[in-house]
Amino acid sequence: MSKFFYLETFGCQMNVVDSEQIVDLLERVGYAQVETPEAADLILLNTCSVRDKAERKVYGHLGRFKPLKDRRPELIIGVGGCVAQQDGEKLLEKLRYVDLVFGTHNIHRLPEMLAGVEQEGRRRLETEFLDADTRRGLFPERAAKEAVTRFVTVMQGCDNFCSYCIVPHVRGREISRAGGEILAEIRDLAARGVKEVTLLGQNVNSYGLRETGEMSFAQLLHAVHEIEGIERIRFTTSHPKDLSDELIECFGSLPKLARHLHLPVQCGADAVLAAMNRGYTRAQYLDKVARLKQVCPDIRLTSDIIVGFPGETDEDFGETLALVEAVRYADIYSFLYSPRRGTAAAQWEETLDPKDKQARFDALLAAQQRISGEIWQSDVGRVLPVLVEGTSRQGGAQLFGRTTWNRIVNFAGPADRVGQVVPVRITTSLKNSQVGELEMEETRAAS
Ligand code: SAH
Ligand code: SF4
Ligand code: F3S
Description:
The chain has 447 residues and is α/β, with parallel strands linked by helices. The protein has helices spanning 13-28, 52-71, 81-94, 110-120, 132-136, 167-171, 179-191, 217-225, 245-253, 270-275, 282-295, 314-327, 354-377, 441-446, and strands at 3-9, 31-33, 42-47, 76-80, 100-102, 124-126, 149-153, 155-156, 175-176, 196-200, 232-236, 260-262, 300-307, 331-336, 383-391, 398-402, 408-412, 421-429, 433-438.
């Protein structure tokens, strides 16, 4: 008889990919996924601790499962991901109804841990970090799945230790996956019909720097570009300090490379950038942006920005606003600074009044909404190539896909276009997506 599991995923794309591996491992040991916790024999949360709000959400969700466990003591509840890595033992002590805690390096151990809980009724905890060689051998074999676009992990971990950030503490040191293995996976994906790959890591552009004899990230992109069947390549996230000239050049020379780059700046003021330990100045960042725009004039950039870092003055914040106006990002993800236990910045006192912090955040949001609105509105009336990813849930011959700038476009069209790059005339620009009309080859020829 099959057993059922329910899995909820929080946080970034690393966790999304890790959750795919969790699903795969569990299916191999006879579990099937269900959509509601009530129907499950096993409930797992894959967690994020990047900001306080994310962490609190995890504890809130776990609380919801306690009544289920009270009613059905045989229910197994497990926690993985970054909160599990950070809180480990404490989590097991605090939440008596949790049976299983596994860290970010221990996902592959899930089946054995689970068997231990099932057979011996023992609570299990595994959160130790593994050494680089072991981890290099553990990049997951991905399960076959029909899809137009897939993430491919190229590196894990982070060595940058930005002073505010928990990620290096919960993901461990940077390691890159063997280039040959990455290319083999992408060739396999292409053979199964995948058209777009997103190369994934906390810091993809430092790919290969720590492994002797490994190719550079730019060389890896060139090799991926050669793979037949792959139409589009994306990568995320890039650190500005590791954005090499060789990589910037790729945006001029590789037509399959999407003309979008997520290049988090975090702040526009030098004093704050230094305190954040970001490893670049405002001028160096702007210089890289200028060179990107030079090799690829229609590139669109997106960014992450933290508001209210300890010591951020009004002038510093003004510099961030000015930088946002100068770069003209297509979008930003902005965050209120949130102190994280164990990071360097956590010792620094926050002097800013929460009201002022929020006011800066609102001002940044307003500026960016205006800029984003202008940029996305400028697409209206243009015919853009859209990679069709699927049929929309609403049905009714509605398709959706993305432009090179990673914007979702909804439009009417036949389902056999899924997986193709088709010309779409953009008719409306909404807050988070666009609406368009499929340009028929015939109508274009006639007009
Ligand atoms: N590796 C990526 C993503 C890191 S986490 C990168 O380097 O860009 C995603 C974003 O969360 C960061 O870019 C940063 O803007 C934000 N962030 C990280 N720690 C934070 C904190 N303590 N408070 C507020 N925002 C934070
Ligand atoms: Fe965090 Fe900085 Fe590493 Fe990004 S580069 S994950 S912000 S420490
Ligand atoms: Fe969150 Fe961990 Fe990602 S802290 S942002 S899930 S690496």
